[in-house]
Amino acid sequence: MIVRFIDWLKQWPRTVRVLSLVAAAAIVIWSLAAVDTHHAHTWVEQHIPGFWAIFGFLAASVLIFIAGWLGKCGIQTREDYYDR
Amino acid sequence: MLFLPELTILGAGLLFFLLTLGQPSEATIKNCASAVAAVILFTCVLCVNQTGNLFYGAYRVDLFSQIFKILIAAATLVVFLFGNGLKGIKQDSRPEYYLFLLVSNLGLVMLVSSVELLAIFIALELSSFAVYIMVPMRTTATGIFFQMEAGIKYLLFGVMATGFMLFGMSYIFGLTGTTSLDGIAEQLPILANRPAAVVAMLMILSGFFYKLAIFPFHFWVPDVYEGAANETTAFIAAVPKMAAVALLIRLTSLASHQGEMVLNLLMVCSILSMFYGNLSALVQKDLKRMLGFSGIAHAGFILLGLLTFKLTGYASAVYYIVGYALMNLACFLVICQVAAKGENLGISDLSGLHKRAPILALTLTVALFSLAGIPPFVGFTGKFMLLLGALREDHLLLVTLAAINTAIAIYYYLSVVRMTFCSDSNGLGNVQTGFLANSLSLILVTVIIVMGVAPSWFVALAESAIKTIL
Amino acid sequence: MTGSFIHPALIMIAGALLLPFIRGPFRKPYLCLVPILAFCDVLYLNQFPGTYGVITFMDRWTLVFGRIDNLSTIFAFIMALMAIIGTIYGLHVEDEWQHIAAWFYVAGSLGVIYSGDYLVLFLFWEMMAFASTFLIWFNTDKDALAAGYRYLLVHTFGGVMLLFGFVLRYQATGDLSFSLLDEHNTQLYTWLIMIGLMLNAAVPPLHSWLPDAYSKASITGAVFMCAFTTKTAIYTLARAFAGFDILIVLGVVMAIYGIIYAILENDIRRLLGWEIVSQVGYMVAGVGIGTALAINGTCAHAFAHILYKGLLFMGAGAIIHCTGQSKLTELGGLYRKMPLTLLFMVVGGISVSAFPFFSGFVSKSMIITASFESHLYWAAFLLTAVSAGTFLVAGLRLPYLIFFGASRCTPATWEKAADPVWNMRLAMWIAAFFCLLIGSYLPFLYSMLPHADVAFHPYTIPHMAETLQILAFTALAFYFLKGRLAARAAISLDLDWFYRMAGRGFLWLAEKPLQWLDTAWGAAYRVVGLVSLMTIARFSAWFDWNGIDGVVDGTARFVQGLGGRISVLLQKGQIQMTLYYAITFVALFLAAYVWL
Amino acid sequence: MDQLLLNQGFPLLSTLIFLPLAGSLLLFVVRDPHFARYWTLAVTSIVALLSLTLLPKFDRDTAAFQFAEHHPWIESLNITYVIGVDGISILLILLTTLIMPFCVLASWTYIKDRVPAFMICMLIMETAMIGVFVALDFVLFYILWEAMLIPMYFLIGIWGGPRKIYASIKFFLYTLAGSILLLVAIIWLYTANGYSFFIPDMMWKDYPFTAQILLFIAFFLAFAIKVPMFPFHTWLPAAHVEAPTAGSVILASILLKMGTYGFLRFALPITPEATTTLMPYVLWLSIAGIIYGGLTALAQQDMKKLIAYSSVGHMGFVTLGIFVLNIDGIEGAILQMINHGITTGALFLCVGMIYERTHSRELSSATGIGQYMPVFVTLIGIFSLSSLAFPGTNSFVGEFMILAGAFRHDVPLALAAIPGAVLAAAYMLRMLQKIIWGGTNNPDQSWLTDLNSREIITLAPFLFFVFWIGLGPQPFLAMMHSSVVNLLDQFHGYQQAITAAGMY
């Protein structure tokens, strides 16, 4: 069942992609419209619309870039490093 | 009755003289010898409580002398018993050998009773000359060809030592005008600080240093031990030393008033003997040579007892020499049994003895551990009492050096034990041991252990004996 | 409760000891029975808070084996539950020693949780360390031996620190009881105890053992290990160090550190190990915040974490078990072959990523909210950022690289791959069920929390909106940047470099210089002791042999050995010389006498 | 003589001493190997059972010597046969008597030739060992102390390994050389004490300071070599490696304890002032031993050598505990003496069992046997854990108390001892790991058979004690408590008296 479901999804990659983006947009819009931010903890939450969406995107990207940068700095090395 | 032991020995000597004239069979000689030795011991025991003077006071029979006579007779009996084959002696001179042995014995027995310088000298020479002759009687069938040389060396050393002794005696006579020990004892305290008296006493002592093999009169020991037949060595190693200790006790008790010098000298001799003997013994390959060197060390130990100038010290020395004689007899018993043809034994010849002759191996081991001073054997108890006596007199350094010597000595004794017990027989055949030798060795082992564990009776006896001469 | 305190650890230990005697068809029922019994015991005990099992030891120390209060109950509950799940997961393992080690390990953990003083704590603490080492060693991998060894040494070090700490504390205060330490009066022992406990919680820089060991443990062993060591340590930290500010910093650093390494990681179990580090960071931070809400959050998160991380490790174990591969570079596209495993991994992944209605959502947010409420905004934002990273790694990267995308499997691996045996699936079902239960039915978890008076409502609209926004846009970022997240056949250097290198150097030290020293000592003994003695002895023998004997004999027996002067003497005279020597000595004595 | 509680009725202690000796006599005559084994087992078991009857009658509340017997022996020298037991010695006596039957069992098939002789050595050994622990006359003590060397020498020299000659002579010479000055010290004490060898009379006397120092040095040489303390330890590995299993067990379990027993019985009470003066040096020597022993053990390939070096470390803990001179330290040290006897004895038995199968003591030839000998590796695993002081086992209690005592005495000192504990974990686990799992290329061990019931019976009691002492050490500590308290009271009283005398 699961296999069939995934295979079915894979037949329509473009549709899936679009639907996903639509869903993301819908979440942001719903947040802007329906959520009362007056009791939020911080200024940024109250005054920046869609703050958490921006935050999520940036956080993920920054983490990926930091990791990549660190990896290039020499943290990542060949697998037999300890066996020599 | 007072003179009975000596007469018996004399009679026994005559018996063997008669035997030399005829063509007696081996068995006759053997049986005669054993029987005679037993009779001598019996008469000695019989006369133990006799006291009295003979020969115008030159010869005294007291508990001291009688006990030494018993000891000498007993040791001789043991030598006779385990050496009864006389494997190492020329076939045709065996009756003569016994004759000389008895003469020597007579000399020793007389020595312990002598209380006059000339009597001492005569008795000493009597015992010595007989032994000088016995040494070259070894048969060349044993593969040893320097018995004559050994005999000559022994003789020449003896002559030198007796020379010293005679010289000393003449000094003493000159100083005191008497040759009687009692007389000298009266006079000596007065002369105590006269150098001549000290020198004279030391020179007299040197005669017995030679018998006991104390540095510097020990040079003869290894050669004579090696050159003489096993039975002869057994005799030399055990019997005359007892008499020598007896006389040394008599003489040092005289010299006890002569102050520091004698004491220092005895201490130096003692230390040098111990070190010299033990260190040399470490590298020996020949069992008898090793025992000879170890004898030098043990003689040094005995001096520890003498130089206390105290009753207990003397008693310890007596105890120790008796123990030493027992251990040595046990060792030589084994040597005589293992050396099938009377040859000299290297230490390696003992390998695997525990298989070849278990009882002998046990005997040898007990004797060696005892010689090494390991409890609970007589050697330990003796050493302990000697050290104790010396430390009571505050000779801490001496005692420490002596203790260190004990540790050194362990090595060569152990290397023999190792051969006996911890190695294979390397193709060496079994040793034939008779019932006599086995039971004799078990008796010796028992005595060595019993004397070590319960020395009280013997020490008390020695003390009471020594009290009679002080 | 009428004095009938039976320690659940005792049940586990007794069960483990009896296990070798249970054979044949009884084995599997028995395996299930023992942890269930222990679980029932825990349930029973949890109803009667109090102090039990108090024993006076050597007339001086009071040992408390059973302290049952609102903090220990929840941890005991989840540990016992996990023991059941883990045992079921390993039901197919024939080797009874693995079960025995695992049960001892569980017993150690339960013992720590119920312990009321440092001696008992230490006893069980070490039991955990040793038992878990065996779980690593049971893996047949060549590296497992070395890894287990490193693991053990690190934990022994931690144990020693702890021992130091509480002994010092005992010396200073005379108190052995295991209770909250004073933040305003810290002593050396406070830090030592903290180091000892933090090592087990894998707080940087004491963390490297975790990914190292968990990736090398046996398959079932890793399932046990991911649950017990760190969470037991969190319990002890919450007990002794609640409200220590330094822990907030360490916790946040830990969360970030772990997630960055997880992004780089290639080995699936190492990846999950790094994620444990990251998640435990939340808990450490929660302990550091120390408010009632934060402690609640820590407990809840530990509870939830054990289940979803257990689920993830079970999934990872299933993959390794069924494919023989553990590297992302060797996997991919497996959804066709292992659909159920995919399902479980996804459930685990979205639980850890705090999807609404899954367990992480109701627990993680508690800690973040607590930090907001304590006005620790930096911590709150950083932790939220890490939660984005968590989704990135566990919810997206891991399933994507294993199950979707291009297959990088060898044909053999592909052929082998299939969903695992029934007991593994059952265990995963149970864990997945609990993940969903916790997230959906709040009272189940919340009624067990230690501070019952503090209410927390996760399902508010702002919270939902916040979470969904973050998740959606993290997914978006993943979509754009997934090229950068691809699997690379590489390892990441970490602080374990120091352990490994130090260990190597240490062995070298023991083998080379010290052994040399000992040999030299023996030689010195021989040379100085025996040889010098023998030299003296030889000298004396030489003296006797060459100096005296040689002259007396007049023979040439040992001519070769004689020195020049002595050989001359030997030629000259024979017996006279000996006599000369003897007389010389006598003369010397006399001279000495006269002179002195 | 008020320190003695004379024995009424059956002379139990003398029986314990002389029964083995009497038993050995029969073996001189009957030389059948099978008979020798059963007979020795019977004799040692009877002695063990008899020794257990000491327990109910032992009064824990007194520091006096109990079950004492007193007979004159060599009256001219005032040497007496006087024996007695106090809280310090009773456990060691029980350890001795209880371990001997298992040594016999362990030699059942290990010793194949000259069995009666072997058993004679074992029995004589037992006599001497029990005697050393009960002797209250210094000469009696010394005689037994030295006499012990002979059977041990034969045990190593006859039934030992390839380098037995070297090892046995080294053992004998080294230990004898060490104790030879003890003899001088004994005689000195005799003359200083009004010609008495009675040990309690020699204690707590104000000998001159120099004399105390010299006495202490003599004691120290004798006992430190026996313990063996670093750097006097080199005889131990040689002897352990070459000795047969039973010999190793006796060496490790009992002989080594005589050194530390000597410290407690003689060095502390007879030379308290010197002890206080020299204590720091001894303590740091102990630390050096702990660490050195641990490090060296780590590098060993030979299992027996490994355990031998570990003994150096463990005994370092014992001397550490003794010389911190407080109740924790000393009680811990005595307990650790027992623990080391149990644990190391058991480990040597285990190694002997491997050796009987593979004829090698190399770690490399015993790798990976866990698969084929599960019972065996379980047992050796438990004993190894005990050896590294794993909580719940006996050594943990002992080491913990010693460290507690050390902490109370001096913190840096205690800290310095800690690496020893880590090292212990390192070397024991290294051995364990190799034995149980080994590497990737283990030799084929599939022909190995697991332990038979005789071997399991041999090890079972050790296991029992490992856990008993580990979990409930109270009864053991209670036995020694009075004596240790008394020792420390006397010691501190003596110190105060000295200080007071110094002030006026």
UniProtKB/TrEMBL annotation, chain A:
Q: Which residues cross the membrane?
A: 50-70
Specify whether Transmembrane is a keyword of the entry.
Answer: yes
What UniProt keywords are attached to this protein's entry?
Membrane, Transmembrane, Transmembrane helix
Q: Which domain of life is it from?
A: Bacteria
Q: What is this protein called?
A: Uncharacterized protein
Q: Which organism is it from?
A: Desulfoprunum benzoelyticum
UniProtKB/TrEMBL annotation, chain C:
| Top-level taxon | Bacteria
Q: Where in the cell is it found?
A: Cell membrane; Membrane
Q: How does it sit in the membrane?
A: Multi-pass membrane protein
Please name the Pfam families in this protein's record.
Proton_antipo_M (PF00361)
Keywords linked to the UniProt accession: Cell membrane, Membrane, Oxidoreductase, Transmembrane, Transmembrane helix
Q: Where is the NADH:quinone oxidoreductase/Mrp antiporter transmembrane domain?
A: 115-383
Q: Which residues cross the membrane?
A: 6-23, 30-50, 70-91, 100-116, 122-139, 151-168, 188-207, 219-238, 244-264, 276-296, 302-320, 340-358, 378-405, 426-449, 461-481, 578-595
Q: Which GO terms describe its cellular component?
A: plasma membrane
Q: Where is the signal peptide?
A: none
User: Could you tell me one molecular function GO term of this UniProt entry?
Assistant: NADH dehydrogenase (ubiquinone) activity
Question: What Gene3D superfamilies does the entry give?
Answer: 1.20.5.2700
Biological processes annotated in GO: ATP synthesis coupled electron transport
**Known NCBIfam families for this protein?**
PRK12668.1
The record's annotation in PANTHER family points to:
HYDROGENASE-4 COMPONENT F, NADH-UBIQUINONE_PLASTOQUINONE
| Annotated protein name in UniProt | Multicomponent Na+:H+ antiporter subunit D
Origin species: Desulfoprunum benzoelyticum
UniProtKB/TrEMBL annotation, chain D:
| PANTHER family reported for this sequence | NADH-UBIQUINONE OXIDOREDUCTASE CHAIN 4
| Protein name per UniProt | NADH-quinone oxidoreductase subunit M
Work out whether the entry's keyword set contains Cytoplasm.
no
In the bilayer, the protein is annotated as: Multi-pass membrane protein
Q: State which residue ranges cross the membrane.
A: 12-31, 38-58, 78-105, 117-136, 142-159, 171-191, 211-229, 241-261, 281-299, 306-327, 333-355, 375-393, 413-432, 453-471
Sorted alphabetically, the Gene Ontology BP terms of this entry are:
ATP synthesis coupled electron transport; electron transport coupled proton transport
Q: Where is the protein situated, by its record's location annotation?
A: Endomembrane system; Membrane
Assigned protein family:
Belongs to the complex I subunit 4 family.
Name the InterPro entries on file: NADH4_N, NADH_Q_OxRdtase_chainM/4, NADH_UbQ_OxRdtase, ND/Mrp_TM
Q: One Pfam annotation, family name?
A: Oxidored_q5_N
Q: Which UniProt keywords apply?
A: Membrane, NAD, Translocase, Transmembrane, Transmembrane helix
- Residues annotated as domain NADH:quinone oxidoreductase/Mrp antiporter transmembrane: 135-417
Residue intervals of the NADH:ubiquinone oxidoreductase chain 4 N-terminal domain: 66-130
Record GO cellular component, one term: endomembrane system
Q: Does the keyword Isomerase apply?
A: no
- Gene Ontology MF terms in the entry: NADH dehydrogenase (ubiquinone) activity; NADH dehydrogenase activity; ubiquinone binding
